[in-house]
Amino acid sequence: MSELAEGLAIVLRREWIYLWYYFTVQLEQIAPYWVFGMVLGSVISVFGKARIHSLFQALNGKKPGILGVIPASLLGIASPLCMYGTIPIAASFSQKGMRDDLLAAFMMSSILLNPQLIIYSGALGQKALVIRCVSCFLCGTGAGLFVRFFFRDKPFFNFSGFEERAGRDTDPNPALRFLKNLGRNVRATGGYFFLGVLLSALFQRYVPADRFAALFGRQEGFGVLMAATLGVPLYACGGGTIPLLQQWLLSGMSMGGASAFMLTGPATKITNLGALKIVLGGKHFVYYLAFVIVFAMGTGRVVNWGLW
Predict the structure, then answer these.
(1) Cβ–Cβ under 8 Å, residues 200 and 237
(2) How many other C-beta atoms can be found within 10 angstroms of the C-beta atom of residue 68?
(3) In which residue ranges of the chain is pLDDT below 50?
């Protein structure tokens, strides 16, 4: 009995050493992107958010026509707010007469990407970063065009009950405003980030790379579908999914599958869906989900076909 216990202890100690090794290697690779992303996000949130939103508001006065969805989508990516911060801002813009197609482009891009997540995604390599940025921009632009063409004469959003909340970055000292914002960023993302690193270590240790590649790499169409589906339950925080995505790509996930996951994940994040269901209503909410899934699947296939 003692020999069995001793043997079990040796096995557990060995597994712990392996996991700790994978964890520390992954942490060393990803942590600089996480730290820099949080710093950049706080800088933009404290010192640049008002400027971004004023530029977006100015779009309505310039009457840019159909091309207005392009800068609206870009400004949505630049905005550092989460969805629960974006909706009250969008409600305020809507009350001032902002067109729904511009709001759709801004909100869609804001859901999918922000300055912090751009920095985080640098850990995935240049190709994945470019694909993520371009696909999120196109998805936001496409959402704006969808609303413009199919809902030109009727409202798409219902912002009743939403009011712009007072900002929390109100300390008169700029340095303290920045530090407080950075602290909130750390608290909001830190747990998910370290959980993502741990899950990637477990994945690297216990999931055979050849089987994973067979499921998500070689069967390209089915792999894209599976990756897009995985985005629904697994996506909780952008920083937390980067370590997993890095390991999945190394283990054989196709770039198309990764691109589909990077679109459906944030778009179907539970907290985002809860907020969107309120402002879209049942029918428009179904349109939103169908648009995201179709766009993600199409993007994944285009990437895998080598057309991107």
Answers:
(1) no
(2) 19
(3) none
Cα 161 from Cα 159, distance rounded (Å): 6
Q: DSSP labels for 179-229?
A: HHHHHHHHHHHHHHHHHHHHHHHHHHHHS-HHHHHIIIIISHHHHHHHHHH
- Classify residue 62 by its DSSP letter: H
Cβ(94)–Cβ(159) below 8 Å: yes
Contact of 79 with 54, CB cutoff 8 Å: no
Question: The tokens of 251 are what?
Answer: 């283990």
pLDDT per residue over 121-157, tens digit each?
999 999 999 999 999 999 999 999 999 999 987 889 8
Distance CA 261, CA 103 (A): 24
pLDDT of the residue at 215: 67
Residue 111, both tokens: 């859901």
Contact assessment for residue 228 and residue 296, using Cβ atoms and an 8 Å cutoff: yes
- Could you give the angle at the alpha carbon of 56 between the alpha carbons of 50 and 57, nearest 5°? 90
3-class secondary-structure state, position 277: helix
Residue linked to tokens 């009950």 = 161
- Domain segments of the chain as ranges: 32-304
Q: How many other CB atoms sit within 10 Å of the CB of residue 248? A: 26
| Sequence-ordered list of residues with C-beta below 8 angstroms from that of 203, at least 6 positions apart, any chain | 244, 247, 248, 251
How far is it, in rounded angstroms, from Cα 291 to Cα 308? 20
CB burial of 93-109 (b: ≥16 within 10 Å; e: otherwise) equals: bbeeebbbbbbbbbbbb
CA–CA dist 217, 81 (Å, integer): 34
